[in-house]
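Study this one:
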Amino acid sequence: MPFGAAASGRHLTGPPVVQRSSLREQVAAALRDELMAGRLGAGRHFTVKEIAELYGVSATPVREALVDLAAQGMLVVEPGRGFSVPQFTWDDFVDIVEARSLVIDGIFRRLTGRPAALAPAVAASLRLRADAAVRAARAGRLDVLVGCDRRFWAELGAFAGNHRISDYLDWLRVQYWIFAAGYLRGRDDVARFCWSRHLELVELIEARDQSGVHAMLLAYNQESLEQMSALCGRPLPEPPTGADKASRQQPGQVPPPREADPRPAATQ
């Protein structure tokens, strides 16, 4: 079966459009979208030749793109066979959400005082991103949602004020969707399992409600676990020590900072 048909579950009417101005990045972006939308199922095997023929480009940029994605943990290198889509487990997903929660919590613990107001152009752009994500989520349009959602959070990532943190959060989001989309694809109730409060979050940011933003982000991560737990039939993880209080904070509240541990840090 041709790679395109197996990847998307449908017959392609023509080869995907790949701009030749930056083939390596274009191929990587196209495959990343396929992974996030669940059109490339977990465990799917393919070769450089298959991808090169699918996109109608030479093998060199395809190989570079695949190696890049593998280095980012989005593909698995199989010596002698090519590449495959990683099969993330429920424990992997829990780790992804926990990492995201810890980073977000750390960002807000570092912030002091009320954040600066968003520039009108930034606020308008963020609202457009949020509106697109909300519409896609409520309509259950998974293919559209994964792109809109990622772009919204990437733009919001500037809130961290650290591009390395923003890049890390984006990497976690891609892996989040690789896992989640595999369970969502093909369902007729996708909207039930998709967060759609992007616009509410923007309103809190515009109001410079730092504690409200913090509380909503923590609640969002907890909701992500609860939704996927119900979908996968897996039990919710026990919260780490001290994290249960943070997860029970009401909107508008920020958990108090933890006291310093008097014990010496363990060495690696």
